[in-house]
Every structure is written in structure tokens, then in C-alpha cells.
Design a protein that fits this description.
54% of the residues lie in helices and 12% in strands. The chain is built from ten helices and five strands.
Length: 209
């Protein structure tokens, strides 16, 4: 099983490698801090699974899922992040990820997640499975941010973090006009009028750290 790790924190990458080093059939063949380094590795290696963080410099992990699947449809993606499951996991799985675990649970569940994903199955924690089942039983009303596309969701989170329009454009490699258009659609879908409302909502929903 050939693995690459995409995380901008060296300490996290080293910790993941230590966990994987105990397994004779799993090999870390590369590491990346951002999207540019990630796709350079695809030019050099055949990769079974990408361990991908959501929070990365430049384009986020959520934004990269579809690009990875487009370039290498057979490569599977395991999201490993600090962000809570109930806020990000379903969106990541819908985008094409095969599994989702949090960093606080990585030492216990990482290898099991990799094996299940490599076998063609999905991996979510038992707590997330219970959460999803509870929502179904309660006829759960989805939070308003669930109506956003993946790119709209990323723009919304960056607005909530206080980023200026130009900074968002530079980070996502899109034009200022495109960011403005996304912001308008976000405001319309979420029925909000100001950035302050977005910031308050994102904090309440734990969408930003």
C-alpha cells in the first residue's frame, strides 16, 4: 500500500509516519505541504492513498479532493484533520473522499482506516455513524451552509476568518470578481447581508478554528 501524506505541519507528518512504520505492508512514499508539492508527487509515483488535511496553505484539502480524483481516479483519499466530523465529514465524503478521521483519534484508527479504504470500503468513526443515524431518526433539518457548493463553502469559511476579497482570490487562484460573485451567492443562499453575520454563524457552527 503506497501512501503520501499532505499536511503543512512537519510534526504531524512525522507522527503519521511513526504509526505507519509499524506496518510491513504500508509504505509512505512521499510528503507534501501544499497542492503544488502534492501534484508533483503524482508525476513521479503511483499512489494508492492520499492522507489529506483540510487546512493547507493555498487551496484547501476539500478543494483538492475533486482534483485528485480527476487526475487519478483509482487513488483513494483519507481526510485526517483537526476539524470536527459532524461539520466536515459528509461534505468531504460527498466530494470523493473515502474516509475521515480526526487528528486526536489518528493513533488509534489510522491503520484500520487505511486498510478499509484500500479494500474499497468507506471509513467513518462509530461516533459519526451514530450522529448521522440520529439525524435521520429526528428528520434532521440541515444547517444552511449545507446548501453551499464546495467552493462556496471554502469562500464562506475564508470570509469568516476575516480574509479580504483580494486575499481570498490569491489563496484560491481565482479573480476578485469571482470571489465577489461567490460572496453574493453565499449571502443569498444563507439569507445573510453582512460579513459579520457570516462570522457569527461560522463560529456558532464551529466551522473555523
Amino acid at each position: 500500500m503506497k501512501i503520501i501524506i499532505v499536511d503543512d505541519h512537519e510534526l504531524i507528518r512525522e507522527g503519521i509516519k511513526k504509526v505507519i512504520a509499524r506496518e510491513s505492508d504500508i509504505e509512505v512514499i512521499g510528503e507534501a505541504c501544499n497542492s503544488d508539492e502534492l501534484f508533483k508527487l503524482f508525476d513521479k509515483h503511483e499512489i494508492d492513498i492520499v492522507i489529506l488535511d483540510i487546512s493547507l496553505p493555498g487551496r484547501s484539502g476539500l478543494d483538492l479532493i475533486t482534483d485528485i480524483k480527476a487526475q487519478s481516479p483509482d487513488t483513494k483519499i483519507l481526510i485526517l484533520t483537526m476539524h470536527p466530523e459532524d461539520r466536515f465529514a459528509v461534505r468531504a465524503l460527498r466530494a470523493g473522499a473515502s474516509g475521515y478521521i480526526t487528528k486526536e483519534n489518528a493513533s488509534k484508527s489510522l491503520v484500520d482506516a487505511l486498510r478499509k479504504i484500500n479494500d474499497g470500503r468507506k471509513y467513518i468513526s462509530s461516533s459519526l455513524a451514530e450522529h448521522l443515524a440520529f439525524e435521520l431518526d429526528m428528520n434532521y433539518e440541515k444547517p444552511v451552509h449545507e446548501s453551499l457548493s464546495t467552493r462556496e463553502f471554502e469562500v464562506m469559511r475564508l470570509i469568516a476568518e476575516g480574509k479580504a476579497v483580494r486575499d481570498i482570490a490569491d489563496k484560491l487562484y481565482i479573480s476578485v470578481n469571482t470571489v465577489t460573485s461567490y460572496r453574493s451567492r453565499i449571502m443569498e443562499k444563507m439569507k445573510m447581508k453582512t460579513n459579520a453575520e457570516i462570522i457569527r454563524y461560522a463560529i456558532e457552527q464551529k466551522l473555523i478554528a
